[in-house]
């Protein structure tokens, strides 16, 4: 294990070791587990905001900077990261969030982490420091390396610092809780809300017998609350507006991503009912976020979960607990063969795939 405190230290560590894997706050331990022969780079000492221009709505910070530190600095100027980065309270870092490609419920309206990172400097397999993107939104020249590093899991290089664009904080938020009779009913109402012009900031529900659909809206009061009341009337299901305390508690719980094992699964709303059918009666919980396009499955035995995902050809990224690392069967295989081979020709960083992709036959 190596703990660099400067970018120069990172360059030297990459040159000196045969294979390295960068690690941030350790909030997603399955992603930072190292095999034999792999040196772990603990980047917690590589922290701090380098530049922050509130008038330009941009900042640059070292990769090991905790999200909580960034959020506090932004809040002092009435700004925030609209993609709701999860695990901030647990100590997640800026680089770890980008490497894992993790976004929270706010991704529904404004896009994910890949839509807000505008620049990156990283150390490649030769120990050289390289820049991609820029520090301002208008700089769009060259290859879009910042987006390439989103979801790279530390397999393409060691991110040294990152530049982000930010937004003004919303004036007010209101969350509505809508009672649904079944998973299919929740998906139907979710699709209804997502297809309207209300521009929900977040839409999600948990997979239970009688799920509750949570819809979050933002805007200016006093017009916001009547708008959400109109939403409740249009959705034609029992529901209510949560108090600010109830809403804060719910969204903080979502950001905590509790449970072990914890697996992130990209999917579509139409695939939720069949997945719920297969997992009904199992221990653990299922939360469907971003209008049903992402599932967080926690506390489910990998021996039960992984065959279900394979049968449906659904990729699963294990964030915490046991089970194989599968960022996306087909896409990661192509990335391994083409992108990683170009970015890391000498194999200084671990392979992306932990196991070959053997798709199950279609039903």
Shape from CA axes? globular
Fraction in beta strands: 15-25%
Structural class: alpha+beta
Q: Write down the CATH class of the largest domain.
A: Alpha Beta
Tally of alpha and pi helices = 12
**Would you tell me the overall average pLDDT?**
90
CATH topology name of the largest domain, in short, is Uridine Diphospho-n-acetylenolpyruvylglucosamine Reductase, domain 3
Q: Quote the distance from N terminus to C terminus.
A: 46 Å
Can you write the helix and strand succession as a string?
HEHEEEHEHHEEHEEEHEEHEHEHEEHEH
Tally of separate domains? 3
The CATH level-2 architecture of the largest domain is identified as 2-Layer Sandwich
Tell me the number of strands: 17
Integer-rounded radius of gyration: 21 Å
Query: What summary fits the major beta sheet?
Result: 8 strands, antiparallel
Describe it.
- By secondary structure, the chain is α+β, with helices and mostly antiparallel strands.
- It has 3 domains: 7-168, Uridine Diphospho-n-acetylenolpyruvylglucosamine Reductase, domain 3 (2-Layer Sandwich); 172-255, 2-Layer Sandwich (Alpha-Beta Plaits), CATH 3.30.70.260; 262-320, Alpha-Beta Plaits (2-Layer Sandwich), CATH 3.30.70.
- Helix content is 30%, strand content 23%.
- It has helices spanning 7-16, 29-32, 67-75, 94-100, 107-110, 145-149, 183-194, 224-235, 244-256, 272-279, 302-311, 329-343, and strands spanning 20-23, 39-42, 49-53, 58-62, 79-80, 117-123, 129-133, 158-165, 167-168, 172-179, 202-206, 212-219, 239-241, 262-266, 285-289, 294-298, 317-320.
- The N and C termini lie far apart (46 Å).
């Amino acid at each position: 294990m190596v703990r660099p405190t400067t970018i120069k230290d990172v360059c030297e560590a990459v040159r000196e070791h045969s294979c390295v894997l960068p690690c941030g706050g350790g909030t997603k331990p399955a992603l930072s587990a190292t095999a034999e022969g792999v040196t772990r780079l603990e980047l917690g000492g590589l922290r701090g905001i380098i530049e922050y221009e509130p008038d330009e709505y941009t900042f640059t910070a070292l990769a090991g900077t905790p999200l909580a530190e960034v959020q506090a600095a932004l809040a002092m100027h009435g700004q925030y990261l609209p993609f709701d980065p999860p695990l901030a309270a647990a100590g997640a870092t800026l680089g770890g969030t980008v490497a894992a490609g993790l976004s929270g419920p706010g991704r529904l309206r404004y896009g994910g982490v890949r839509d807000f990172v505008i620049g990156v400097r990283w150390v490649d397999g030769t120990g050289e420091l390289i820049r991609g993107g820029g520090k301002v939104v208008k700089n769009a020249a060259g290859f879009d390396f910042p987006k390439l590093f989103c979801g790279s899991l530390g397999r393409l290089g060691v991110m040294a610092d990152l530049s982000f664009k930010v937004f003004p904080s919303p004036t007010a938020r209101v969350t509505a809780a809508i009672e649904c009779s079944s998973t299919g009913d929740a998906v139907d109402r979710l699709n209804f809300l997502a297809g309207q012009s209300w521009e929900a900031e977040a839409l999600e529900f948990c997979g239970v017998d009688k799920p509750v659909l949570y819809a979050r809206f933002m805007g200016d009061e006093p017009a916001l609350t009547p708008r959400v009341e109109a939403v409740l009337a249009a959705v034609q299901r029992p529901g209510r507006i949560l108090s600010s305390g109830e809403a804060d508690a719910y969204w903080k719980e979502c950001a905590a991503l509790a449970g072990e094992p914890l697996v992130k699964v990209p999917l579509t709303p139409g695939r939720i009912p069949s997945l719920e059918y297969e997992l009904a009666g199992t221990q653990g919980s299922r939360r469907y976020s971003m209008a049903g396009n992402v599932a967080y499955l926690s506390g489910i035995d990998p021996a039960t979960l992984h065959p279900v995902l394979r049968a449906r050809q659904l990729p699963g990224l294990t964030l915490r607990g046991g089970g194989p690392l599968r960022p996306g069967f087909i896409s990661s295989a192509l990335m391994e063969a083409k992108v990683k081979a170009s970015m890391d020709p000498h194999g200084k960083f671990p392979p992306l795939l932990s196991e070959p992709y053997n798709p199950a036959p279609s039903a």
